[in-house]
Design goal:
Subunit structure: Component of the Golgi-associated retrograde protein (GARP) complex.
Radius of gyration: 28 Å
Main location: Golgi
Helix content: 55-70%
Mean pLDDT: 85
Subcellular location: Golgi apparatus, trans-Golgi network
Distance between the termini: 48 Å
Function: Acts as component of the GARP complex that is involved in retrograde transport from early and late endosomes to the trans-Golgi network (TGN).
Order of helices and strands: HHHHHHHHHH
Number of helices: 10
Strand content: under 5%
Keywords: Golgi apparatus, Lipid transport, Protein transport, Transport
Number of domains: 2
Structural class: mainly alpha
């Protein structure tokens, strides 16, 4: 990344050095009253240097607003560009502006576009690129989860013996993304986690199993109580923003990707009908995800809440809601 920035700065410096030939003392027209201002301020600074930066910004924005099809740029390129423009905001933009101001004797008080405005625009582009990267990666994992839910017969599935392969693939992909983002961004700040995060089991939906045994004698009340308890639980659960803007840190990026993925998982579950073993398979899958995903996010509660909601929604979509006992 540093080599790329250095190369860009050197090329701009070379171009500016070549353009100085037009304002040397031995060039007659450089001493006219109108040429220096028009050439130095408008052509070199605004149209060439500032114009170059704005063109690059616009190209990057076009990439971040494209569709998520096969013609889209690779996610790794989007990530690299986000880091590049963040570094532009910190150093490169000021280097460009200071070079052109010094070499062409430009008064910063008389310019049209300030360095601060360019830095702000560069940071905005970096933010857009990083948000786009999160969406692209989140949607890729979401596609796997969606296909795994939609192509399975959850009513007639067999008793779960193991976690499904797609869940292992999700964890593998998240781990790879974690290492990829870690090459360019700092770790970031995460909330302290509890000592039993990886051992946590989903106990909050054991109620429906107990209701099931008395369903014949008190079915209306059972359905009402289950729905009421679910709604009360949602009132007190923390609302999670799924597509919120991410921070420039590894843990924030991974949190955004995982939220998108689990939200898709949840929405797919809500559209299916489950049998007893289908519910238990979802229980096994979510427990497996809980064992690994909590360590990638800012706050482990995000994973816990979303996985709880997936299990809870599966219970409500299940014809025989009998959960597995915690082992």
């Amino acid at each position: 990344m540093a080599t790329m920035q250095s190369s860009i700065v050197d090329q701009v410096r070379t171009v500016l050095t070549n353009l100085k030939a037009f304002i040397t003392n031995d060039v007659t027209f450089s001493h006219t009253s109108f040429f220096p201002g028009r050439f130095c301020y408008d052509i070199v600074r605004e149209e060439l240097v500032i114009g170059f930066l704005k063109h690059v910004f616009q190209v990057a924005l076009d990439l971040s607003e494209g569709s998520h099809d096969k013609s889209s740029p690779p996610a790794a390129l989007i990530l690299i560009l986000s880091r590049l423009f963040l570094d532009f905001e910190a150093n490169t933009v000021n280097q460009f502006v200071s070079q052109v101001n010094e070499q062409f004797q430009i008064d910063p008080a008389q310019v049209q576009t300030t360095a601060a405005a360019l830095c702000a625009e560069s940071k905005m582009v970096a933010q857009r690129m990083l948000n786009h990267y999160v969406k692209v990666q989140g949607l890729q994992i979401s596609q796997m989860l969606r296909k795994s839910v939609e192509t399975r017969d959850w009513l007639n599935t067999i008793e779960p013996r193991n976690v499904r392969a797609v869940m292992k693939r999700v964890v593998e992909d998240v781990t790879f993304i974690d290492s990829q983002v870690g090459m360019l961004y700092e770790e970031g700040i995460r909330k302290a986690h509890s000592s039993d995060s990886s051992k946590r089991t989903f106990q909050s939906y054991s109620g429906p199993r107990k209701h099931q045994s008395t369903a014949r004698s008190f079915t209306p009340s059972t359905a009402y109580d289950t729905s009421l308890m679910s709604n009360i639980q949602k009132l007190f659960s923390e609302r999670i923003e799924i597509f919120s803007s991410v921070e420039f840190s590894k843990v924030s990026v991974l949190t955004g990707i995982i939220k998108i993925s689990l939200k898709t998982f949840l929405e797919c579950v809500r559209l299916r009908t489950f049998g007893r073993y289908g519910l238990q398979q979802i229980q096994v899958d979510t427990q497996y995800l809980n064992l690994y995903l909590w360590r990638f996010v800012i706050d482990e509660k995000i994973v816990h809440v979303m996985l709880d909601e997936i299990v809870g929604s599966t219970v409500h979509r299940c014809l025989e809601p009998v959960l597995m006992e915690a082992s």
